[in-house]
Fold this protein.
Amino acid sequence: MKLSTLTLVTTISALSFAPASFADINETLQNICTIVKNDDKSELRKKMRAVQDDYRLRLGDYYDGISCAGNSLIRYAMENEAVETGTYMIKKMGKSDLTRTEKDGVALKEWAESNGYIASPIGQELLARID
């Protein structure tokens, strides 16, 4: 009898202190690609602040886990000429996050150079940030 009561109390305690699930963060980040494509810096700022407040994550922590039409958020911003959101994300990310290779094995700078985006305002902000 005591063992079952102890097990019940332990289970309830564990559930009440469990971290937020990945489904919750996926719901929070659900329309981030649309926000970037629409170049809505204000809405992106709100979304990033909500993730930071609710999950204690910065952009660099979840950046690799998001794909918009097969590209990362900054690549997607470059493709859609979303200057406000693209430059905002670059300013919010650390240099090491911006220089590491992405899922396809190509770093952001090299990808921008090979696809003709390095001369864009977002590409110029990237160069200024990593150099």
